[in-house]
Specification:
Blueprint (H helix, E strand, L loop, with lengths): L2 E2 L1 H6 L14 E6 L6 H9 L7 E6 L4 H11 L6 E4 L30 H6 L10 E2 L1 E2 L2 E6 H6 L6 H7 L3 H15 L7 H10 L20 H15 L8 H10 L4 E5 L2 H8 L7 E4 L12 E3 L7 H11 L2 H11 L2 E2 L21 H9 L15 H13 L3 H18 L4
Parallel strand pairs: 1-3, 2-3, 2-4
Antiparallel strand pairs: 4-10, 5-10, 6-11, 7-8, 7-9
């Protein structure tokens, strides 16, 4: 039986011990809505395949991380299994709260999953804590009709060839804006984010040393690319989500770079544009945006059964079912031969699953530091550059100064 919001109330209660459930045969999972296929949870609620346990799945609402970390701090009311979002690095400092999945035999399954996704589940100390659930390989979404009307390449293979690198992509945006007053992306921060999502280097190295101070850093390259997109008119300076949604529908925006999960967002927010969108390779290599994990808190009632659930949930055939039910893109390549299909026609004759399958195979391995939650000033200052015309070099320095101050307080630098 699925219990919506049950855990939120339990955290406010009183008592002792770590277990949420006193039933010896019941394992408790925390997850958020649409992060796991309902039919799979219903099966596990009867019995977790291959075990003598059954699952109780509790849906948590907002502030998922806060609720989980509160439980760890109190050492009370902690689930046996928890979903963890793409911000798994947030938990690196509290890695002692989780079981090392290598000790349960995880490594024998490594070859079944994308290597870059697998590596994101390992902490800098070498412990493997986060089991790969879903992924977000990225691509360049674009309106073929709007590009064609502007006299620009519009077929997927033509667009991919025209935007092999970021300067090419910016030039396409410049030509589109000049000929039709249509932009290629919503705002500069999107460019900054997706540049780094496709980069082997991000903000910090594996020892949490900042990299953005160095000449030629990926962060500075992402910044300069985002600024160039603004100056070329490729970006539309839309800072509010509702404004962006309206622009998809009105035709003021002809493109976006995002993860595979954005297919569902696009079809929900701009259904009348169905059949007009296509997918092309983004500039450079594909990246990853989003995707979640499963983890086992250290006081899990039955680690072997909990691990069996994680493994069963992410079998190729179950990942195919997860895509069908809740559009979760797989972490296991074999899922694409296990019944996955897209019949929406939202991308015309193009097969989005084949596109993102190719993209996922080429995502680079990277390291995401727990301190990435301290670098918001880069995005804040980019918004000021785009919306208020602030000098980009002055904005960069202001961002670095703010971030350095935060990192000094935490003893990082």
């Amino acid at each position: 039986m699925l219990q919506a919001g049950a855990a939120a109330g339990l955290l406010a209660g009183c008592g002792s011990g770590t277990s949420i459930s006193s039933d010896p045969d019941e394992l408790v999972l925390w997850y958020w809505n649409r992060s796991i296929a309902p039919s799979l949870l219903e099966t596990a609620a009867q019995q977790i395949p291959g075990t003598g346990r059954r699952l109780r799945a509790d849906v948590l609402g907002g502030a998922f991380d806060t609720k989980l970390r509160t439980g760890f701090a109190a050492q009370a009311y902690i689930p046996d299994i928890t979903a963890v979002n793409s911000n798994a690095a947030l938990y690196f400092p509290s890695e002692d709260q989780f079981l090392d999945l290598d000790e349960l035999g995880a490594q024998q399954h490594r070859g079944d999953y994308y290597g870059w996704k697998w590596d994101l589940g390992r902490t800098p100390s070498g412990r493997f804590l986060f089991w790969p659930m879903d992924t977000g390989p990225t691509g360049f979404f674009y309106r073929a009709d709007l590009l064609a009307a502007a006299g620009l390449p519009s077929a997927p293979e033509e667009v991919s060839a025209a935007v092999r690198d970021w300067p090419d992509w910016i030039e396409l945006g410049r030509e589109l804006r000049r000929s039709s007053d249509v932009a290629l992306i919503g705002n500069a921060v999107m460019v900054f984010n997706q540049y780094l999502n496709a980069s082997p280097e991000r903000f910090f190295d594996a020892e949490d040393r900042p990299l953005f101070h160095e000449d030629g850093s990926a962060v500075r390259a992402a910044w300069d690319t985002a600024v160039a997109a603004v100056q070329a008119g490729a970006s539309l300076n839309l800072q509010v989500e509702n404004e962006q949604n309206a622009a998809w529908n009105s035709g003021k925006l002809a493109g976006h770079i995002e993860g595979a999960w954005w297919m569902k967002v696009l079809s929900d927010t701009a259904p009348q544009t169905a059949g007009q969108w296509r997918l092309a390779r983004q500039p450079g290599d594909p990246g990853n945006s989003g995707g979640s994990f499963l983890a086992l808190p250290k006081d899990c009632k039955d680690p072997e059964a909990a691990f069996a659930f994680a493994r069963w949930l992410t079998l190729p055939e179950n990942q195919a079912r997860s895509y069908t039910e809740v559009q979760l893109f797989p972490s296991a390549p074999a899922a694409f031969t296990s019944g996955m299909e897209d019949t929406t026609g939202f991308f015309g004759e193009q097969d989005p699953l084949a596109f993102f399958s190719d993209a996922a195979a080429n995502v680079p391995t990277t390291f995401i530091s727990t301190y990435e939650n301290q670098i918001g000033a880069f995005r804040d200052q980019l918004r000021v550059v785009e919306s208020a015309g602030k000098d980009p070099d002055a904005a960069w320095q202001d961002a670095v100064d703010v971030i350095d101050k935060l990192l000094r307080k935490r003893g990082v630098i």
